[in-house]
TrEMBL record:
GO terms for cellular component: plasma membrane. Residues 126-176 form the ALK/LTK-like glycine-rich domain. It comes from Macrostomum lignano. InterPro entries: ALK/LTK-like_GRD, Pan_app. It is an enzyme of class 2 (transferase). It is a single-pass type I membrane protein. Pfam families: ALK_LTK_GRD, PAN_1. It comes from the Eukaryota. Its EC number is 2.7.10.1. This is receptor protein-tyrosine kinase.
Length: 176
């Protein structure tokens, strides 16, 4: 018996998370939902959207490998109206579990004084990176008064999309 790919209809808009690299191929002139699903199976896609009025079949493929050179952006597939029929693999949710590669790099001071030296890191996998920074504790000024203690240092964090080859310059200083 043939191993047949099974697609199920999805109600509403289907969301593909930005941590999953995905690509959309548009096929025009498709005559039915069934034909769109069959085309999707032939192209090994994970989901498809059939637009009834235009006969457009959007085939969605996702990367199964980290670092795939696809589009790292949120995809909203279909519409809330009956104009679009969204189909997905039976195990779509299992496939879409975020493929996040957790890499933690901790930079420490490698110099003396408050300024440290520049440390370089080159990005070798394109994607969304979370960068967390912690400022050093400020220096105490106990010469003026015993209660003039330095501040704790600030914390900052953010997500940034980085491409392969981007080089970051990191400077780690010391507490004041």
């Amino acid at each position: 018996a043939c191993n047949r790919t099974r697609y199920v209809q999805h109600n509403g808009v289907l969301v593909v998370n930005s941590t999953v690299s995905s690509q959309v191929l548009n096929a025009s002139g498709v005559t039915s939902v069934e034909a769109c699903a069959m085309l999707c199976g032939m192209k090994s896609c994970s989901a498809a959207v059939f637009w009834k009025s235009s006969g457009l079949c959007q085939l969605v493929t996702v990367s199964r490998e980290p670092g795939f050179a696809g589009n790292n952006e949120w995809r909203l597939l279909g519409s809330e109206t009956a104009e679009a029929v969204v189909m997905k693999l039976e195990n779509f949710e299992e496939l879409m579990k975020p493929r996040i590669i957790n890499v933690t790099r901790v930079f420490t001071n490698n110099g003396t004084g408050r300024i440290g030296s520049v440390q370089l890191v080159t990005i070798d996998i394109a994607g969304c990176y979370r960068i967390e920074l912690a400022g050093a504790k400020g220096g105490d000024n106990t010469y003026v008064s015993p209660d003039k203690l330095g501040g704790r240092g600030a914390l900052a964090a953010g997500n940034v999309s980085l491409s392969v080859g981007v080089q970051l310059s990191i400077v780690v200083g010391q507490a004041g």
